[in-house]
Amino acid sequence: MLEYQSMDTIYDLNLKQTEQMLAEYGQKSYRAKQLYSWLYRKRADSFTVMSDLPSSLTEELGRRYTLEPVKEIDRQVAKDGTVKYLFEMNDGASVEAVLMHFHFGESLCVSSQIGCNMGCTFCASGLLKKQRDLTAGEMVGEVMYVQKELDREEKRINNIVIMGTGEPFDNYENVMRFCEIINSDHGLAIGARHITISTCGIVPRINDFAAGHYQYNLAVSLHAPNDELRRKLMPVDRAYPLEELMGALKAYSVDNHRRITFEYILLHGVNDTDSHARQLADLIRGMNAYVNLIPYNQVDENGYRSADDRKALHFYDILMKNGVKATLRSKHGEDIDAACGQLRAKHERDKQTS
Ligand code: SAH
């Protein structure tokens, strides 16, 4: 049997690479912007509609590239309008993306890997080990699929968070190219300050990110204020303990004049005591940062529970009184399997039992 070869997607190419690719066909560099405009502004579904490009070129491009790197195989819609998509890639692997409606607009949470190897004990993504990284074009494909759907309602995705399945800094180059493509003025032009990369704390990549002076937002999943507890929740803490992590983040924040978001899921009886709140304040005070207190989306497999609302508010108060800014995030899509990896894990289980 012939091995299945997945077709390249043109969404993989940044503008420079698009110019280089077009040069192979003897095309001048201005054609790249024309092509980008068809892809990202007019959001063409095929190459044949690209009427100001030579038809010999669009035929070639159609043979070489797909405009459909992701296909929808399932979705769940919550009462608050949050939509969770399950996408299938050309090789049959699947990932999730979540669309949330906020007062400031449409925000899409994208996945960066198929599965995840970080092993955070509370997270559903780690239930399935990493199979592979997503390419930049597959991540762009997640955005394009949802944007094309929103076009029918004349709505625009204006915020991207890379907080779906996967560790973006374990797929650094593809993720940075993805950001570049969706940020390009000639493409979707999603503002850099409206793109957030969330990492569990891979210090060497945080240093690379700092050195690159990118304008994207950085969020860091902390979830514990000391190494002893963090290590139990997040194995990555063994490789990059808090002192190292906080040192890298302080340097990044000062050199780049950027504010960092710390994510902290409040887990009942695990990391939600007054003492944890005070330790957290001690860790962060003085930094240009704030803490995003996240309610936990329950994952049946692991037994954690979300802290109750009163406790969450109390935790928030302690942080504020101790000089640390915080926000208490409300739940989105509570009535669907909105936690990273939940919908996919369910599908994989169904596959195994059917
Ligand atoms: N690997 C990256 C991005 C993916 S996870 C990271 O660790 O930041 C995105 C965020 O969702 C992280 O803060 C993660 O800890 C959190 N998260 C994972 N499972 C969750 C759950 N069941 N409920 C709420 N938040 C969860």
Task: Return the CATH topology of the largest domain.
Answer: TIM Barrel
Number of strands: 14
Strand order of the largest sheet: 3-4-5-6-9-10-11-12-13-14
Structural class: alpha/beta
Report strand %.
15-25%
Extract low-pLDDT stretches. none
Hetero groups:
S-adenosyl-L-homocysteine
Key descriptive features of the protein:
TIM Barrel; 10-stranded mixed sheet; alpha/beta; DNA polymerase, domain 1; 19% strand; 12 helices; binds S-adenosyl-L-homocysteine; two-stranded parallel sheet
3D structure, described in words:
37% of the residues lie in helices and 19% in strands. Helix 1 crosses helix 2 and helix 6 packs parallel to helix 9. Strand 10, helix 6 and strand 11 form a beta-alpha-beta unit. The protein is globular, with a radius of gyration of 21 Å. The protein is of the alpha/beta class and 354 residues long. The chain folds into two domains: 55 residues, DNA polymerase, domain 1, CATH 1.10.150; 284 residues, TIM Barrel. The chain starts with 7 loop residues before the first strand and ends with a helix. The strands form three sheets. A ten-stranded mixed sheet has the order 3-4-5-6-9-10-11-12-13-14, covered by helices on one side. Strands 1-2 form a two-stranded parallel sheet. Bound molecules: S-adenosyl-L-homocysteine (SAH). The site of S-adenosyl-L-homocysteine has 19 residues, from strand 10 and strand 12.
Summarize this structure briefly.
The protein is an alpha/beta fold and 354 residues long. It is 37% helix and 19% strand.
What's the layout of helices and strands?
Elements: E1 8-9, H1 15-24, H2 30-41, H3 55-64, E2 65-66, E3 70-77, E4 83-89, E5 94-102, E6 105-109, E7 113-114, E8 132-133, H4 136-151, E9 157-162, H5 172-183, E10 195-199, H6 203-212, E11 217-221, H7 227-233, H8 236-239, H9 242-256, E12 260-265, H10 274-284, E13 289-294, H11 309-321, E14 325-328, H12 342-353
Parallel strand pairs: 1-2, 6-9, 9-10, 10-11, 11-12, 12-13, 13-14
Antiparallel strand pairs: 3-4, 4-5, 5-6, 7-8
The structure holds S-adenosyl-L-homocysteine.
S-adenosyl-L-homocysteine binds next to strand 10 and strand 12.
